[in-house]
Amino acid sequence: MLTGVPLTVEAQGSNDLERGLNSSELCAALPELDALQVADLLGISVDIPRFFPIDLTARWDKNRHEVRRFTTEGANFTAELVIGCQPSDQSAVIKALPISAENVRLFDNVRCEGVLPGEGSTASADCEVSGEIGSFIARFIDLNGYVARFVQSN
């Protein structure tokens, strides 16, 4: 970000939304996931011996979200996001396998359209995920509700 250059409402909204998403508990809602199932979902191959001395489940509870674009027009807004969840670099499965948490990050593109809060009305959002991974994550989190609540409070 350039210092000394004032942010537009859209740029400030984008920065605030990204900070809000990354400090939220969105990914904490995901259940424990098996590393092999996640690797399969991501289409990567991990060669693990049949007997492996650690539990291969981990929490994908670390937020790694990005806001690509946030725009407003009149009483409406549009947000283009990348929703991403990954395990901690310190989880046992990540320490034991030849992979990094970033390599098994579950992420997908999301587009949200909604209504800004007005006098006597609350914000609303309708978010659509673009793929299988986003659909998987969306089963566990209320992204529409979170984005609407964030827009309402900012």
Can you offer a commentary on this structure?
The protein is an alpha+beta fold and 154 residues long. The chain has a domain at 9-31 and 61-89 and 102-153. It contains five helices and seven strands. It has helices at residues 9-22, 35-42, 92-96, 132-138, 143-153; strands at residues 32-34, 57-59, 62-63, 66-73, 76-86, 106-115, 124-129. Strands 3, 4, 5, 6 and 7 form a five-stranded antiparallel β-sheet that branches. Strands 1-2 form a two-stranded antiparallel ribbon. Strand 6 (106-115) and strand 7 (124-129) form a beta hairpin. Mean pLDDT is 82; it is low at 1-9.
Protein traits:
5-stranded antiparallel β-sheet, disordered N terminus, 154 residues, two-stranded antiparallel ribbon, alpha+beta, elongated, single chain
Structure summary:
The chain is an alpha+beta fold and 154 residues long.
**Mind summarizing the main beta sheet?**
5 strands, antiparallel
Number of strands: 7
CA-atom Rg in angstroms: 18 Å
Principal-axes shape call = elongated
Percent of residues in beta strands?
25-35%
Ends: how far apart?
21 Å
Query: Helical segment tally?
Result: 5
Oligomer: single chain
Helix content: 25-40%
SSE run: HEHEEEEHEEHH
| Global structural class | alpha+beta
Low confidence ranges: 1-9
Mean pLDDT across the residues is 82
